[in-house]
């Protein structure tokens, strides 16, 4: 079977990482086997979600969990849950929020666009997004001021390299402020599944991560947290969450991926990522005008990436033009190009085989005339 050939699609050498626009992740065999088996059977989905809740609780240290269509839907449904609680009449009322606390506090530096604005995820539930502070600074006093104004359903914190990385209030302090006011904290940790237990440990009431990034399951959102709120998240499937529900393959896939993670050696995984970074550096070393660095993941996940900084005067390429040239042709080599306007980009080795690394590095050398 050759799907690229059958449908006229380019092969992708993914040096960008766990990105939705590239299909997020290659699903691991251990997960594929369970998902394939699930497709042959029927289940009572309430029972299946209850089983997922037990697995998520064991993997995260949270009280319970459920599976949604993706992280974005998990954010919307978590906010809805904080407004409605476990009252089905309230669930039916949404997105009309009259009579509910409906203000959701978010630091302005967290108002990112991950493919869609995170503030839109808030508004989809019928809530108001209350942006606090300015882009490069938010203080505890400003969060406290909005909490004191009342009608706050939740505080949403975004754990992502896309957020402003300085001048903001960290999650543990946000939790302390919010809980003193009796307000739950939701953490969008889409690509932070490696830190799921850590984020729950901060005291967050709900943490949402993607099943289809480092966990390498089919597309799914893994929602972990307080049992009463998780129950309220799942209850949204009878209201605004109906179009965001997870199918059996997503639920089984998330469970299988979490079980695999609990038995996985993260130090061994990190060592393998370090080996691939070393292979990239070795193959690109010595190119005139190309500076190589190894940078740790900015979110604190246990791996690094290779940074390429071309000198246009020497190489004839800016970071943007070199990244664009890599993406030309079939197969396309897609680098992590978030920072090209700052003069550099990354080759992320996580989803690269040794063969992929060799091809990508040879293509860099060819473009630069080496």
Search tags:
42% helix, Aspartate Aminotransferase, domain 1, alpha/beta, 370 residues, 3-stranded antiparallel sheet, 7-stranded mixed sheet, 2 domains, Aspartate Aminotransferase, domain 2
Short structural description:
The chain has 15 helices and twelve strands. Helices cover 42% and strands 16% of the residues.
Describe the model.
It contains 15 helices and 12 strands. It is of the alpha/beta class and 370 residues long. It folds into 2 domains: 123 residues, Aspartate Aminotransferase, domain 1 (Alpha-Beta Complex), CATH 3.90.1150.180; 221 residues, Aspartate Aminotransferase, domain 2, CATH 3.40.640. The strands form 3 sheets. The chain has a 7-stranded mixed β-sheet, sandwiched between helices. Helix 3 packs parallel to helix 11 and helix 7 runs parallel beside helix 8.
The H-and-E topology, N to C, reads as HEHHEHHEHEHEHEHEEHHHEEHHEEH
Query: What is the oligomer described by this structure?
Result: single chain
- Biggest β-sheet description: 7 strands, mixed
Number of helices: 15
User: What name does CATH use for the topology of the largest domain?
Assistant: Aspartate Aminotransferase, domain 2
* Structural class assignment: alpha/beta
Shape: globular
For the record, what CATH class of the largest domain applies? Alpha Beta
Number of domain units? 2
Mean pLDDT across residues: 93
Report low-confidence residues grouped into runs of 5 or more. Answer: none
CATH superfamily label of the largest domain: Type I PLP-dependent aspartate aminotransferase-like (Major domain)
β-strand amount: 15-25%
């Amino acid at each position: 079977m050759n799907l690229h050939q059958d449908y006229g699609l380019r092969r992708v050498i993914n040096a960008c990482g766990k990105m939705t626009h590239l299909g997020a992740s290659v699903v691991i065999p251990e997960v594929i086997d369970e998902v394939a088996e699930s497709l042959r059977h029927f289940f009572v989905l309430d029972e299946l979600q209850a089983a997922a809740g037990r697995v998520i609780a064991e993997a995260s240290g949270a009280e319970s969990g459920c599976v949604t269509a993706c992280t974005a839907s998990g954010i919307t449904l978590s906010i809805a849950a904080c407004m409605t609680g476990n009252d089905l009449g309230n669930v039916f009322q949404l997105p009309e929020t009259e009579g509910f606390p409906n203000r959701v506090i978010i630091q302005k530096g967290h108002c990112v666009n991950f493919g869609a604005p995170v503030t839109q995820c808030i508004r989809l539930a019928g809530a108001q997004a209350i942006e606090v502070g300015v882009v490069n600074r938010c203080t505890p006093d400003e969060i406290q001021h909005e909490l004191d104004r009342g009608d706050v359903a939740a505080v949403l914190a975004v754990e992502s390299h896309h957020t402003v990385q300085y001048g903001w209030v960290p999650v543990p302090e946000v939790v302390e402020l919010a809980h003193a006011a009796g307000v739950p904290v939701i953490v969008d940790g889409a690509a932070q599944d490696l830190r799921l237990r850590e984020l729950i440990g901060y005291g967050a009431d709900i943490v949402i991560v993607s099943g289809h990034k480092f966990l390498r399951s089919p597309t799914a959102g893994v929602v972990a947290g307080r049992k009463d709120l998780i129950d309220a998240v799942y209850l949204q499937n009878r209201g605004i969450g109906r179009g965001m529900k997870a199918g059996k393959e997503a639920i089984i896939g998330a469970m299988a991926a979490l079980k695999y993670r609990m038995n996985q050696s993260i130090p061994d995984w990190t060592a393998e990522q370090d080996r691939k970074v070393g292979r990239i550096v070795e193959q690109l070393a010595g190119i005139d005008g190309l500076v190589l660095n190894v940078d740790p993941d900015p979110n604190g996940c246990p791996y690094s990436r290779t940074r390429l900084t071309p000198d246009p005067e020497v190489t004839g390429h800016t970071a943007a033009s070199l990244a664009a040239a890599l993406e030309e042709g079939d197969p396309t080599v897609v680098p992590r190009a978030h920072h090209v306007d700052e003069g550099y980009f990354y080759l992320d080795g996580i989803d690269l085989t040794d063969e992929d690394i060799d091809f990508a590095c040879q293509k860099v050398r060819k473009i630069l005339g080496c």
